[in-house]
Amino acid sequence: MSNIKNHSGKPAAVSVASFLATGKEELELELVAGADGLERHIIEAAINRPGLALSGFFQYFAHRRIQVLGLAEHEYLRSLTSEERDKRLRDFFEKKVPCVIVTRHKKVFPEIIRLAGEFETPVLRTAMITKHFINAATLLMENLAAPRMLMQGTMVEIMGIGVLIEGKAGMGKSETALSLIKKGHALVSDDVTAMRLDSSGAVIGTPVNVTRYHMEIRGLGVIHVPSLFGVSSVRSEKKLDFVATLCLPEPRDDEDRSVAGNRTIELLGVKIPRLFIPVAPGRDLANIIETAALDEKLRRLGHDAAKELDEKLVASMSGGKNVSE
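and the corresponding structure tokens:
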């Protein structure tokens, strides 16, 4: 029933242009030279300081990473003669690194600007202190390079639990989510949800940029959720805890009528609990999903109602007691 798109489960290719556009404000980045190489891909998410490479030692050089020239690298290059600096930098640029970033807003050497144009290698600059930049840039790269997919469905946060409501068109996904928002819960995304796998192995749901914080309600049209319900009614992202699948009320041979605690769906290699909810006139879907979220929260605290009932039934039958007692 899930409509899954772009499901590769592999790290996404990150271009220098994408890194620059995403981190321009947060990382205070500016393009200095090498604009022709902005489509070059950054293969590895980690950040590298090429001190040894600039000294001429290229064994084990991590040339597939972003190269950061901090204060130490800058002072080392400044200590060289113009001819020696040109030679060391040429050897460095010949390795076709993805891009070079100069921190602390240091002046970029003319040799770097010239070689950046020659080798079409983007050179960026930031005012950030080197260690702070590396920490922030590493997090940004891990986010950009994380395995991703798009999934058709509306995602909400219910008391800290991330729920994706999916189902065929016309099942009432957005209307159910709207009812949950009116109850005080929050919208993550409507209609299409972008999923990514973070470094801890959790699946994170985010809205796509085009429809962020908007919902389309049949018969009403498009609404802007935070304008109607306040800024607390939306979330920029949320960990996915379970999937609620709206389905037709006809019984399914493979479907458990109880809350399907052991039913799962695999997204980006992670098994997520899944609950099938039959849609029928008069059913309060928002209330059912809200209760399911509460039940999921209890499960995380070690309380499983279905398992507890099974144990009581087994104990009653093995002990010969009346179940009604």
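(Above: one complete record from the training split.) The chain is about 30% helix and 25% strand.
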